[in-house]
Every structure is written in structure tokens, then in C-alpha cells.
Queue: 2 jobs
Job 1
Amino acid sequence: MVVDPTAERFRDLEAQTAKIMEVFARAGYERIAPEIIQPADVFLDVVGEAIRGRTYVFVDPDGAELCLRPDLTVPACRIYLERHPSCDARSRYYYSGSTFRFQPGGATEENPREYRQAGIEFFGDGDEERTEAEIVALTQKVLKTVGLKNTQLYMGDLGLFRALVNAIEMPERWREKLIHDFWRRDTLAQRLKQLTTPREELETGVPDALLNALDPSRPVAARETVREWLDENKITMIGARTLDEIADSLTDIAADRQHGPLDQSGADLIEAYVAVKAPPKAVGARISDLMSQHDIDLSVALARYQRRLDQLEDAGVDVGRAVFSAEFGRNLEYYSGFVFQIVTQDQQDGGYIAGGGRYDRLLEAVGAPHTVPGIGVAIHTDRLLNAVIATRSRDDGN
Amino acid sequence: MAEKFVLGLPSKGRMMDLASEALRTVGLAVEKDGDERGYTGTIPTLPEVEVAFVSASEIATQLRRGALHMGITGEDLLRETMPDADTKLDFIAKLGFGAADVVVAIPECWIDVTAMADLEDVAEVFRKTHGRRMRVATKYTGLTRRFFAERGVTSYRIVESLGATEGAPAAGVAELIIDITSTGSTLRANALRILKDGVILRSEANLVAARDAKWTPALNAIRNEIMDKFNA
């Protein structure tokens, strides 16, 4: 009897999903079924406008702006919030379902507009490094259970970058900018260049006469100066940004000009850190080395990094074969700390099989009254099945 | 029966008059079928051509689908409708009318912001202060998204605006706008200023051919004849 290939595919995918669900359930996670149709607002506010270009957003007959969920993490956050409005519970959820992404070049088999994901989210965990290790180990267990081999684990740590920037001498607002710029390689390079530029060469676009009249140590007087300047130049105030906000921002520009530039060695250190890519165990030593050359103390962040490695090993993860990359985690805007991805060589269609990380600020952005630690992983089950089939046919061939 | 060659022209206003005038100048005068309100027409000197009068934005959509062989409309609408306009279309001639720039305009009172790079800094602070992203009013959602992404501006929300966009900041429905301007006087009248690197596109009316339309040797010959007249 000839089996229709799409029927066979469906059967295999269902069987694979059932196995994955069983592993999650046995690990003590609770199954949830997030809604497919989500309010568009939450996603656009949390993830930003970039995702709207790839999300199926529509307006229903009542005028509400809705979307087909472009991921399952935000919908899982909304379930947690609904069940625990005060956000003090420790919850471990798992799910399986479709997500929807517009494919600008047209949907293909490799890049479908609708694809399945299975995953877990852990909200309100206490012991961070231990939970991170648990999530990675559980993901690897799932992949092994369904027959995937030759996996490669990539890890990054956005917390280390933050700790580094905090340890380098500079005004707090420069730190915020650098941490924000981490997401975009070009923007970070531009920012470092701007911050290290000698002040007299700095182009601000703001009239010098105004900037020179602003004294950063007297912000209230500076606001008055800006008010007078606007009056004199007959510029009307419109829009939501207040005069005080504009004046404070100008005062920051004036302060940036008065403050000496960022030390070139600080900028070099940031560049050198971002370029670090090595086996995780070598990374600790390499970063320590970099720091001692620049006389920077990162011992607290590095101790946490080391503790995570220990926890990963205790959980049975082969850390020796993994790769740590300092810039890994770019383009995953809501992650805030540890990030990881698992790929396999037995994969025809590119992209990672599983990816996840820590997102301690996401719940608050979705509406929680305070920050809630959160960490999760999503597995692309279509890609996973393709890779498992490839593994099997290669093994059969040998 | 041979395939018809369909040329799309704007269906109303100055754009319609100027497009017809541009065709007349090269010896391709258009005659409307029926009365002045008709939506089809012919070119007596090139009888194989059927002229379809449709709205300027609809011309872009129909060119993308290949429902028109050629069309005259603004480059702004073509690029907004087709992110891949350069592979979907052959730009045959710039027609010298409908000149307008698609620009990023902010309230004039934002004296701390002069360039796109400043915008991202201000947007981040705005998000922290106001608890929401800065809103950008525009009808050019595609152009805006692409331009902002290229310039590393991410902390914003688009508010779709289908008319009187320049009034959005004063009305409090958006913080800044992306809109079309020819002289800048409407922007100034609304207390707005263009960022110094905020020109997204310098647009004018273009004659274009749709690569995805159905082309036969006979239709290609007509296209070449029209092209020759414009390039003569």
C-alpha cells in the first residue's frame, strides 16, 4: 500500500510531539494551550515594530487589533499573568502548537508561514544558574529521545556584557546606551566611536550657544534656559514629549560634551570582549585575562558564569563540546541573560532546532507588577523531524 | 484574439491630467471611452493598448500582481507596495511631475534631535518615561519599517494614518510622522521639521513595466514602442 507522504509526515510529527510532551510532563511541567489569536498590542510593545513586518496582524469586526501568535513565549506569559496576577508563583509550563510568520520572500517548505513549536517556560525560578542548566539538560534529553544525534550547543550570556559595561568607568547614561546597542553590531561600533571621539570634534546638531548655556549640575535652571530659548526662537511646544524631557535630554548632550571622552582602552575592551568565542571552559580564563590587562573586576559575574558551567555538568550536559560566543544572543531582543541554541549537522534546511534563554524583564513588559525571572526554550519540531529523518537515513546508509 | 496590452493611469486629479499630458507629448494621446467619468480608454496612435484608469496606489498593487503591463504612478507608492520593486519592475522613464519627498518629520521643538541616530536615543528614554513606545504616524508602513531598521531605530510603534498625517503630533495621536512633502510648507505650518538625514525617498511619477505581467512577442513589441517614444 502506498502511504501518502503528507499523511506520513503528519503521523510522524504527531508521534514525535507525543514523545516530547511526555518528557516535559515527566519533568514536572504543566501543559498549557495558549490562544492562537492574540492581542497585537502586547507583541508590538514587547518585541517592537520589526516583528510586525513578519506577523499576521488583522483588525476584527469590532476594530480590535489582533494577530496570529508569532511565538509562544509571550502567550505563555499572558497565561501566567492571568493565573497569578500578583506574579509570586513558581510555574513551569509546556506547550505544543503552531506559530505564524510572514515570509517576505514567499513561504517555502524550508521557511513556512506556519510552523510547529514545542517548548517550556519556567516563571519565578529561584536558583538561576541551576534552572538554566535544567532547561538545557531537558532540551537535550528531548532531542535524544526522538533520535537526534550530532547536536552542537551554542551559549551566550548577556549578563556578562552588562557586568562588563557597568565595570568600565563612564556616565550611567552611556552604559544604558551601550547595553541597548549590544543588539546591533554596527550601532555598537558607531556608539563606541562616538563616545571615544575628542569632545571638540563632536557633532551634536544643537546650536553651540544653547549648549554652552546649559549647566548639567543645575538641571532646573537648564530647563528655564531651554524654555527661554524656545520662546525667543518662536518655537511652539507640540506633542507628548514635555519641555522638561527635551531640556533634560539637551542637558545630557551638554554633559556629554563637557565629560571627557570614553577611554579608548575601555572601548577596546568592549570590542575584545564581544569578539570572544571559545569552548565554555576556556572562556572564563580568557575573560579573566582580558579584565586583568585592563584592571577591571568582573569576579561576581564570572563566578556566576562558572557556577552555571558546574550546574550544566552536574545536569549531564557535555560542556566540553559546547561553544560560548560573547555576541551570541543578538537579534533575540527580549532575552536578558543566559541564551542558548542547539543545531545539528544532520540538518538540511539551516536554522537552529532549539533556542531559548533567560528573559527576566519580559513579564513586566507584558503587564506584571514587578520583574519576574523567566526562562524558556522553544523547539522547532518541523526542523527537528527533518533532522531526525536525515540522521536515520544516513545511519541506514552506513 | 491577441492579448491586450494594459496601461494603468491615475484615475483622478492632477496626476491623471499630467500623466495624460506626458503621453500626449510623446505622441500617445489618450481618449477616454464614453464620458469623462469612464474608467477605460484607448490610444488611437497605438490601438493595441487598452488604458485602465485606476487609483494611483491601486496601479502599484496591480503592477505587482502583473495585472497591468505598464503604469504611471509615484515611485513612493511603487516602493511602498513592493519592497522588491527593483526586481519586480523596469523603471522606464521619470516623468518630471508629482515630485515629492518621503521624509521623517519631528516636532520642531525637539531641538535635541537632529539626525536619525538621535531618534533611537530619545525613543529609548521616551519608552522609559512614558511606559510605551514612541508612535510614528504614516501611510508608508513598509518604507518606514525598512528605513528605520536600516538606521537602527527600533523603539517605535507605527500608527497607520490615511490622511492629514502632518496634524498627528499636534493632535497627540503620534510623536512623529513619515509623510510626503514637496515644499515643506505644510510641515512648517504644523510645527514640524525634517531630520537632516530623514529623506527616505525623492519621489516623482514614473513610467514602469511589470516584469510579472504576461508578455508575448507582440506585447513586448508594444512595450518597446512606448519605451522608444519616451527615450527618444
Job 2
Amino acid sequence: MVPMNASETSPQANVSVRMQRIRVVSQIAKVMVGIVLCFNVGFSLFFARWSSSQLLTPHGALMLAYHVVTLVWFWQWFQLFREYERGRIFAADTIRHIKILGALWVIGWMVLTMAHFVNVPAPAPAITANAAGQLPNGSQAVMVSHHTYRFGFFNFDFGTGIDLGGLLAGTVIVLIAWIMDEGRKIKEEQELTV
Amino acid sequence: MNENAIPPKKSNARLNRIKTASRIIRLLNIFFFIVGATMFIEMLLGWTFFFPGRRIVISDNHIYRLATEMPSAIFALWLVKNILGLVCMVVFNFLFRLYEQGILFSAKNILYLRFLGYGLIINWAIDYQLQSSLHDMDLSATPVFAGLLIIFIAWIMDEGRKIKEEQELTV
């Protein structure tokens, strides 16, 4: 009588356990993101005070655009977790959702940056000239330029006033998704190779 | 001969593309690491060789010329933040070195990804602590979401890798 290998089915059982774990965590994450998305949509529709005068300004229009990008971003999160819940870990659609998340991050950063510069008014001069272009007695016009370069490891600008850390985060996410996609295609092609 | 067989050239081209992109990113990372480390050392020691006009910016209303001007608690947090940043850049370099070697889904890749995700979140926590102790908050929650997304992707990749290994063991 040949003894049965007790561990023969263990790897398969482990696979099922892992897949189940992914499904459960993804389901919980999907529900949480769904709640946040519904809250955001509900808040925008019923509580946010959008007046047409606000929306007609460049800043107002950009903030509305940023709000829309945020909603689409949460929707993509929802769809990503739905794919994981279905057990589609490295499918093309799943990786596409990650790429879109990264791209939306970059778009949101661009919109927010534009809104920031539209909103920041030009500094008013402390001393103003009269109608003839003459300064008050005893005052002298002096030009002062001040440059600030911020350099931290996760947030940095180079005298632009723009935090480039957000752009970096979005780009890295898109890059990682692209590498995952290329890896998936390599694996598919290797399976087809004789 | 299987007419549907994909020649290995296409796979090699993909892998070469990944390797080239990873090399470029790694070189950029090394450049910024050198700049960042130089600036950090200058700020720490009060030197002004390469960045004469530099200031240490904790928040918009708390800017210091020298590290010694900072209160000790703020200085300690600033030191930890910068060392964390340097370490994360080193780990980023290791990750893309693996991609450059064509190693895409190993346990090490996932470890480095996870480290970077946690690094983003810890950095945000340090910023929060710094700015709240100075009562000067101007913080975005974006890095926390980025960190959580990266950690989640790393976990999924790890589970996928283990599933693949276990399927290979199945008789």
C-alpha cells in the first residue's frame, strides 16, 4: 500500500486560502472606497455651495475640475478593488486601472497647481507712485527679488512654488503599473513560445 | 512548428525596454540623491559651498538659516525626516536596479516597494508632528493615499507571487 502524500494538496489549499484573503480584503476596501465616493458625491450635490459666479472664475472652474478628477479617481479605486475581488490580479484591465490612477494623480496635481497660481494675487506695492509716476518725497524705488528653492525628499520645488512631489508619486505609480504590464505580456508570450 | 508561437525577440524587446527605462530612472535618482545629500550635510554643518542662499523650511512661517537655530525637538524630527528621505532614495535605487536586471516580481522587489510605501506615510506623519508642534499646519493627505496604494499593490503582488510558487509545487 502506497502511503498518500499528505502535503500533496497543501499548495493547492494554500492557493485557495490566499485567493480568498485577497477577495475578502478587496471587498472590504471596495466597500470603504464606495462609502467615501458616495459621501463625496452626496456632499457635492446637496451641501457644497457652488454659485455660478464662483464657477465662472478661472479658479472656481479649476477647483470644480479638480473635484471631478477626485471623484473619477475614487471610482477607479472602486473598480480596481472589484477586479481584485474577482481574483483578477495581473489581468490587463487591473493593471490599466492602476495606470489610470497614476495618470489621474498627475492630472489632479496639474489642475491643483494651476488653481494655486490663478488664486495667488500679485503682491501689491507698499509705496505707490502718483499719477505722474513720481514717488513720495524721501522714498526710493528698489527692486528686490526673492527666490526660494525647496528641496525635501518627498516634496520639492525649484523656485517655481510648485510642489513636484505629487507629480513624482503619480509618475512612479504609472511606471510600476507599466512594468507589471510588460511583465504580464512577457509571461503570456513565453507561454506561447514552443 | 507552432505558427502561433511568439518568437523570443518580442519578449527580449520588452525586457530591454524595462531595463533601459529603469537605468535612466536610477541615474536620475542617483543625481538627486547626491544633490539632496549635499544640501542636507551643508544645512547640518552650516556650510555654504554649493547652496549659499539655502534655508531650512519647516513650514511657510518657520524658516531657519542654520540647523542649530531650530528647537531641539524640531531638529530631531527634521534629522529623522531627512535620513528617512536618504534611505528611501537608496531603496528606490535598489528597486530599479532589480528592474534593470530583469527581476520584476521577486520577494525583494516587493520588500522595497513596501518600504517606499511606508516611507511616504512615515514622512507625512513626521511632517504632521513638525507642523502641529509649531502650530503652523499646511499639509495634504495625498502622500498617505499614495503610500497606502503602493503598500496594497505590493501586498497583491506578493500574494500573486506566492500563488504562482505554490501552483508550481502542485503535483
